[in-house]
Amino acid sequence: MRHTAGTLLVGLAVVAAGIAVAMLRVNPYLYFAGYVILQYVVIATAWNILGGYGGYVNFGTPAFFALGAYTAVVLIQWIRAPLPVLLLAGGLVSALLGLGIGYLTLRLRGVFFSIATLALSIVLQTMIMNWDYVGGSRGLSVLRPSGPPFGNYVVFLFTVMVALAVGAVTVARFIERSWIGRGLSALRDNEEAAECMGVPTLRLKLFATTVSGFLLGVAGAPFPYYVTFVEPNSAFAIDYAVNALAMPMIGGTTSWIGPVIGAVLLGSAQQLATVTISSEMNLFIVGVVLVAFVVLAPEGILGLVRRLRGR
Amino acid sequence: MFSWDLLANAVVAGLLLGGFYAAVSLGISLIFGLLDIANIAQPAFLILGSYAAYVMNEAYGLDPILTGILFTPVFYLLGALVYRVYYGSFERRGEESLRGLVFFFGVLFIIEVSLSLKYGVDYRLVQTGYTGKSIEFGGVGIAFRYLVPCVVGVAMTIALYLFLGRTFYGRAIMAVSQDQGALRLMGADPVQIKTIAFGIGIAAASLSGALLISIAPVIPSTDRDYIGRMFAITVLGGMGSIGGTLVAAVILGVVESLMSTFFGPSWSLAVSFGILLAALAVRPAGLFGR
Amino acid sequence: MNRPRALIGIVVATLVLIAAVGLIPVARAADPIRIGLGMALTGGLSANGKPALLAMQIWKDEINKKGGLLGRPVELIYYDDQTNPATVPGIYTKLLDVDKVDLVVSGYGTNLIAPLMPIAIERKLTVIGVFGLANNEKYKYPNYFQISPTGPDPATSTATGFFELAAKQTPKPQTVAIVGADAEYPQTALVGAREIIKHHGFKTVYDKTYPPSTVDYTPIVRAIKATNPDILFVASYPPDSVGMLRAAHEVGLQPKIMGGGMVGLQFTTIMNSMGSKLNGIVNYDYWVPEKTMMFPGIAEFFKEYQPRATKEGVDTLGYYLPPYAYAAMQILGDAVTTTKGLDQQKIADHIRSHEFSTIVGKVKFGKNGEWAKGRTLMVQYQKVQDGNIEQFRQPGKKPVLYPEELKSGNIIYPYSAALK
After folding, report:
1. Closest CB to A261 among C11, C21, C115
2. Tag placement on chain C: N or C end, fewer CB within 10 Å?
3. Which residues of B touch C315 (CB under 8 A)?
4. Chain C residue with Cα closest to A126
5. Separation in Å, CA of B74 to nearest CA in chain A
6. CB neighbour list of residue C346: distance below 8 Å, 6 or more residues apart
C-alpha cells in the first residue's frame, strides 16, 4: 500500500513537472522533441508488457499505433470529438485488436506469433489504404482545434503525453510487481511448466495483449493532431516496430524502468541525429548502436548497471 | 470480364512469379526454417545481391544471373562471418531469439545505408537480352523476364533439396536442427555446420538478388517490401521444408496473380497475408511443417 | 533503492544533454540571411529530394558570389525529413526557434508539405512549396505559393493535356482504361482523370489501383488488354512505371495512346536503361530540352548543375525537379531584394502580386498560390535508342505536344506507329 501511494505521488509529481514545463514555455522545439520521445516511452513500455514480461514478440506495433491514430481520424472527421474521447476510443479499439491477437497465442508461439503480427499489420494497412473516408492512400490533413490550453496545441499535446507516459509506466510497474507479472514471467520461462503449476496462462496472455494494445492505441491517438497530416506509410512505419523492440532491449526488458531508459536514450539520439547529422548516417548510426548494444550489453543498460554494482 | 484465356494466363503468370518467390525465400527457409535464426536482414542481403548484379552489368555488361553465380562465394563468406559474430555474441550465451532480432535489424540498416551512401538513392535497373521478350503457347504468353527467374528458382530449390538429402554436410545441416548431440557423435561440429548452412543461405541471396533486379527496379530500401513476403512463405510452407517453401511461394504467386487479374490488384497482398494468418490459425506448423 | 535513483539520474542527465545540444543553434557566418528547410535525403522521395537540394545550393552559391541578399550572405540550413511526414513539425520548429532562420521553403512532395501548412499558418510564414499537389485546397492560406506548374486545378493537371490530345486524334478514341498505384500522387491524378474523362465523354472500361509493392504487373496489364481500351492512362511511381511499361511490351498491349501520369520516366537512370521501350509513350513532364523551353538562364543552370550532380551521384540530367527548385529560390530572393527586408507579409504580398522571370520562364501565382495558368507539358518519347544517355540532351527525343503555345513536335498516332 505504501508503495502504491509512493508511486502515485511520484507519478503526480512528474505530471506536475510536465505542466510546469508547459507553463514555462521554454523553446518550442523542446516540446516537439519531447512529445516524440515520450510517445516512444509509452510505446516501449506497452510493448514490454507483452514482449519483455510475457516473452511474446510483437512485430505488429505499427498496426496498433496506426489503429489508434486512425480511430482518432475517424472520430475527428465524423464528430470532431475532443481529445480525451480520441484517447479512450483509440485505446479501446487497439485493445480489441490486442484481445484478438491474444487468442492467436493459443496456437502460435515464438516467431510464429511474431510473423502473424507482422502479417496482421500488412492486412490492416491495406484496409486503411483502401478506405477513402480516412484519406486512403493519399492521406488526410487534420485541422487542430483552436484555443488550446497553454495557448499552443503542441505544448498541450506535450503535457498530455507526459500524463500518458506516467500512466503507462505506472501500469507496467503495477503489473510487474503483482502476481500478474510473476505469472507472465513464469510463462516466458516455460509456458508448459507454468500451465502445469496452475498459472492461468490464457487469461494472463489475454490480459497482457489487451493492455499492451490499449496503451499502443493511446500512444497513436494524438498523432493526427501532432503531425496534422496522416497517411498510411508513415502511420504504419517500420520504425515503430523496430523502436518498440530495440528500446526495451537497450534499456533492459525485465523492469519497468528499462523501456523508459531505452526510449529516452534511443529516442533522443534519433531526434538529435535528425537535426544534426541529417543524412544517411542517421540510420547508419541507429544500426551500429543496435548491433553494438545487443552484442556488448546483452542485458541492456539495466544489466550493465547491475554488473557494475555487483563488482 | 472473366475468360478462360485470362484465367490460364493468370495461373501461368502466378506460377512464374511463384518460382521467383521461391528463389527469394530459399535462403531464409534454410536460415530461419532449419537453423531457427530469425535473420530479418536477409532481404538486405537480397538487395546487396541486386546491386552486385547492377554494378557488374554497368561496368562489364555481365548478365545478372552470371554475376549472381559468380558472387555466391563472396556472399557465402559474408554469411559465414555474420554467423560467427552472431554465434559469438548470442547463441553461445544461449540468448539468441530476442537480442538476435535486434542485431539483425541493425545489420539490415547498416547494409541499406552503406548501399545508399555508395550508390545513391536512384532506382537502378538492368536490361538483359531477354527483357521485354516473350513467347506464346496457345494464347498463353510467357515473359522471359519471369520465366528465367522461375527456372533458376526451381533449379535452386532442387539443388538445395538434393544437397540437404544426399550429401554429408546437407544431412548434417538437417541434423543440426533436430539433434545436436547425435551430430557430435557423427564427428561434426554443430557450429561449423551452422556456419556452412548460414553461408549457403546468404549465398542464395546473391543469386536471388540478381533475379530481382532483372525483374524490377531496385533502391536500397526495396528490402522492406520483401521482409513480410519471405517470412510468410517460409512459415506457410512449413519451417525447414524446402519443398514446402516452393509450394507456398507458388500459392502466394498464383493468388496474387488471380487477384490482380479478376478482382482488383489493390487487395492482392492483403489476401496473401490473410491466407497466411488463416493458415497459421488452423495449422500453426505450416503446410509441410515438421 | 539506489539503483532506480541512479537510473533516473541517467535519464535526467540525458534529457539535459538533449536540451543543451538541441538548443545550440547551428554555427553561422557573420549575420547571414538564413533559409531553412527539411528535405527528403533518405527514404522513398530522396531520389528527387537530393537533386532539389543541390539546385537550391547552386542558387545560394551564385547569390553569394554576387554579394548575397541585401548585402548579407545567404545560408541554407537543411535537415533530412527521411520522407516521413512525422519528422516535419519537429524539423521546422527547430529551424524557426533554435536556428532562428529568416525564411523557410518546403521539402519535396505533397506529403512532406502537408504537415508544414499549420505551422506556416500559425506563425504567418511565407512558404514556397516544392511540388506539392493541392496542399492549400483545404487551408486557402494566402501566403503559400507552389512552384510546380500544375496550375489552378492541380488534380486534373496531368489528365487535362493527355485527354485533350487523345480527343483530337482521328479516328477519335472511344474507350479508356485508367490504372494507378495506391499512393498519394497517383490517387489524386486518377481522381482528376475521372473528371476529365466525363468531360470528354469517353467510356471507361477499366478503373483499378494496385499496391506500390507489386512485383508482377503482367496480370494487371493482361486484364487491361482484355478490355481492349483505345486510351490507357497510367498514374504511377518509378518502380511501377517501369513494371507497367515492361509488362505492356511483353503482353503486347497497344492502345492507341498510352501514358499520362507516369512518374519516373523523367529520371535519368530510368530513361537510360529503358531506352527504346519508352517510344510512343505520351507522358507529363515539366521541362525538356526543346527549343520552346529554352528560357533565359536555364542553359547556364544546367552547365553548373550537371557536373556537380554527376560528382554527388544524383540525377545526372536533372530536367525534372532541379530547375523548379532553383526557380523557387529565385522568386524568394527576388522578393527579399525588392521589398528590401525580411518581413514575411511584405514578401508574400510581393510574390502574390508580381510576375517573376525565372529559369523556368515567367511565373505568376494565382488561386491557392498555384501558378495562375497551368503549364504541365505532355511530351512523347520518339525515336529513342537503347543505352545512350547523350541523346536526351538533344531536342527531338521528347517533343512537347501540349500546351499549344510550347508545342515543338507532332504526336505519332496511334501508339503502335511510334514503336516502328
Report:
1. C11
2. N
3. 122
4. C211
5. 22
6. C339
ipTM (interface pTM): 0.90
Please give, one letter per residue, the 3-state secondary structure of C65-84: HCCCECCECEEEEEEECCCC
CATH 3.40.50.2300 is the classification of domain C26-149+298-369: yes
C-alpha cell at A106: 493459443
pLDDT averages per 10-residue partition of chain A, 311 residues: 66 75 74 92 96 90 96 94 94 96 83 85 90 90 82 87 94 93 88 86 93 97 94 90 90 90 90 76 78 82 82 56
3-state helix, strand, coil in chain A (%, to 5): 80, 0, 20
CB atoms A107 and B280 under 8 Å:
yes
Please tell me the distance in Å from A196's CA to the nearest CA on chain C. Answer: 35
Q: Is A289 on the interface with C (CB under 8 A)?
A: no
CB-based burial of residue C313 (10 Å sphere; 0-12 exposed, 13-18 middle, 19+ buried)?
A: middle
Determine whether the interchain pair C86/A278 forms a contact, defined as Cβ–Cβ distance below 8 Å: no
The edge-to-edge listing of strands for the beta sheet with C103-108 is C74-80, C33-39, C103-108, C127-130, C144-146
What global pTM score does this model have? 0.90
- CA-based radius of gyration for chain A: 19
Angle of CA points A80, A85, A86, to nearest 5°? 70
Structural domain spans, chain C: 26-149+298-369, 154-285+382-418
| Contact status of B59 with chain A (Cβ, < 8 Å) | no
CATH architecture of C154-285+382-418: 3-Layer(aba) Sandwich (3.40)
Report pLDDT for C31.
85
Nearest residue to B43 via CA among B205, B159, B167: B205
In chain C, residues with a C-beta closer than 8 Å to the C-beta of B266 are 182, 208-211
Q: Which of A137, A227, A272 sits opposite C85 (nearest CB)?
A: A227
